[in-house]
Amino acid sequence: MLRRALLAASASNRLRQLITTAPQARAIVEDYVAGETADDAVRVTRTLRADGLRVTLDYLGEDTTDPAQAAAVTDEYIQLLGKLGADGLTEDGAAEVSVKPTAAGLFLGARTASQNIRRICAAAREAGTSVTLDAEEFAAVEPTLQMAARLRAEYHDLGCVIQACLRRSEADCRALAAYGVRVRLCKGAYREPASVAFTARRDVDLSYARCLRILMNGPGYPMLATHDPRLIEIAGSLALLTGRAPDSFEYQMLYGIRPAEQRRLADTGARVRVYLPYGGDWYAYLVRRLAERPRNLGFFLRSLGSKS
Ligand code: FDA
């Protein structure tokens, strides 16, 4: 119930206004977001790299309805990739970028988004790294996967995300299990109806485990995005069973969530990548994180209340 209410809140303009203008919110946001600028993002990336972690950077923002805004998002990624490359952080794909197709203009038309994402892919290639397309609300899933398939002809390393909560995802995993294809598997952070998604946590977890098995048995490059200890353990067992080399798959977690576990996994020799968001448009991202762990909501509200 609370999770649903919070996810609905992520779209509320009044709540957005209230929270984003509260000065105390900034200190809390810093736990989950690198900062507002590309320089902040590069600085935090450097720290994570020094800890042996890989990084994928997300310039916050989604659902762009203005072509100029979509172009500005594209330019921001290109500038970021230039900075990361100049700093040597993109070597061997150590730092890459994650792009929300709707921020690049998906709902303005697949052509606009394709052109923008192609420009980001070209900049990533020049910097020696790759791009992953995030998965968003259900209406964006099919157009995103179709666009990724088209762009992959030119940029084979373009990754995409599968949300285990969706009923279609097992079939998507099978279709994507091709040589070298980079697929990030997550549970899914959006509120979707039962007609297209599993709504019970247990069913989502079971779907994740099935998708995991398909990807780990396939010839692609699985990117296992979860903080769930049970699923991380299953991934480790599957890696042993399938004889996967440590550099043939990776664990991924969000910046600020289970950092000790991130380092523990990296210390075992596994590849671990941290999803690092930055930018001023952090509201929807933060509310989705609170929805995943309502006990953080209490902490958040108490922090706001105690300082106001
Ligand atoms: P779950 O939420 O069940 O949590 C399992 C355990 O992890 C908890 O019991 C707790 O120990 C810990 N934990 C989880 N969240 C926490 C928090 N906020 N604070 C503290 N501890 C916490 N979604 C999407 O729809 N599209 C996308 O493109 C992406 N991309 C993406 C990339 C990466 C790298 C990650 C890690 C996640 C995403 N997601 C996403 C988000 C994903 O769908 C999901 O909402 C979150 O990862 C939470 O799900 P878990 O798998 O962690 O399990």
Write the layout of secondary structure elements.
Layout: H1 2-9, H2 13-20, H3 25-29, H4 38-50, E1 54-59, H5 67-86, E2 95-99, H6 110-127, E3 131-133, H7 138-152, E4 159-163, H8 169-176, E5 182-186, H9 201-217, E6 221-225, H10 229-241, E7 250-254, H11 259-267, E8 272-278, H12 283-292, H13 294-307
Parallel strand pairs: 1-2, 1-8, 2-3, 3-4, 4-5, 5-6, 6-7, 7-8
Helix pairs in contact: 1-12, 4-5, 5-6, 8-9, 9-10
Bound molecules: dihydroflavine-adenine dinucleotide (FDA).
Number of discrete domains: 1
Q: What does the largest sheet look like?
A: 8 strands, parallel, barrel
CATH architectural designation? Alpha-Beta Barrel
User: What does the overall shape look like?
Assistant: globular
CATH fold-level assignment: TIM Barrel
Detail the poorly predicted runs.
none
Distance between the termini: 28 Å
Assigned CATH class: Alpha Beta
- Which percent range describes the beta-strand content? 5-15%
How confident is the prediction overall: mean pLDDT?
91
SSE string, helices as H and strands as E: HHHHEHEHEHEHEHEHEHEHH
Name the structural class.
alpha/beta
Helical amount among residues, as a percent range?
A: 40-55%
Number of helices: 13
Name the strands of the widest sheet in spatial order.
1-2-3-4-5-6-7-8
Output the radius of gyration. 18 Å
Total count of strands = 8
Small-molecule binders? dihydroflavine-adenine dinucleotide
